[in-house]
Amino acid sequence: MKAMVINKYGENAVFEAQEVNKPTPKQGHVLIKIAASSVNTVDTMIRKTGKDLPLSPDTPAILGMDFAGTIEEVGEGVEGFAVGDEVYGCAGGLADLPGTLAEYMAADHRLIAHKPKNLSMREAAALPLVGITAYEGLIRANIQKGQKVLVHGGSGGVGHVALQLAKYFGAEVYSTGGGEKQLQLIEKLGATPINYKTEAVEAYVEKYTDGAGFDIVYDSVGAGNLINSFNATALNGHVATTVTLCELDLSIAHFKGLSLHVVFMLIPMLHNIYREQHGEILKSMAQIIEAGHLTPVLDEQHFSLEEAGAAHARLESGKAMGKVVIEN
């Protein structure tokens, strides 16, 4: 089969088209013909950082984690899936799991679910990693109907899904953005937009919560922005975040009694534990999508498998609005 392969990591790493062996599904796995895959920040980190990142696969490496496609073969011990089923998931591209930038991949059936019927392959491929991340963070923060939820970075990959899911769960949702297009998208998705460049944390906390703070803050920006999240959260509130690779003074969190939930959704793939939870989340998301409560936002530019490098560059440019997707 054809695959886009990284033979050497680094800032100038390139994808090379190569013929590689088509995988065979072992027990508990299915063979999937890939229709589309999406690019996530972690993919670009692996390409540039290589083995200095503990989760990077050995070279030659087939990257790519998210996909949508059709099952062509079912391994022993697989239940609930059959040849011809359209599925989506996040199931490779790290450690010893070959990725999605190829014509086929063998995936653990616990990491996948049937594709939402009302989404195209391209749309479905955009959702697994960011969707599972958003869903997990909100559930761990014990989201409840009627709560006030703030999403930092509501026009981004994780943020635009967290925003919609929080609304689906019955919360009153607010979200920060830094430009007119971002703020327009946030409002279109059903949240109250907040321009973090012109509105101070204290100002919008006072304006929207009478100074009490938000019940949950989902921070998809992370790092230094976590201090803003702590300041925006109500006493005994919850902060969920995807980016904590930093040193931080937790004094504010201590004196406010905050619960901090760090979401690292790659753990099931890396450590082969709780994988069935990802399949269940994807199944739940498909139901939410089919009921009309969640829509992925895709970047306007289209990329083919051979243009994997350009797709990575598009995401890294910061100019993409929505998920960057590669189509086979």
Automatic annotation (TrEMBL):
PROSITE patterns: QOR_ZETA_CRYSTAL (PS01162). Residues 10-326 form the Enoyl reductase (ER) domain. It is found in: Cytoplasm. The keyword NADP applies. The keyword NADP applies. Gene3D superfamilies: Medium-chain alcohol dehydrogenases, catalytic domain, NAD(P)-binding Rossmann-like Domain. It comes from the Bacteria. It holds the Pfam family ADH_N. Keywords: Cytoplasm, NADP, RNA-binding. Signal peptide: none annotated. Homotetramer. This is Zinc-dependent alcohol dehydrogenase family protein. The lineage of its organism: Bacteria, Pseudomonadati, Bacteroidota, Cytophagia, Cytophagales.
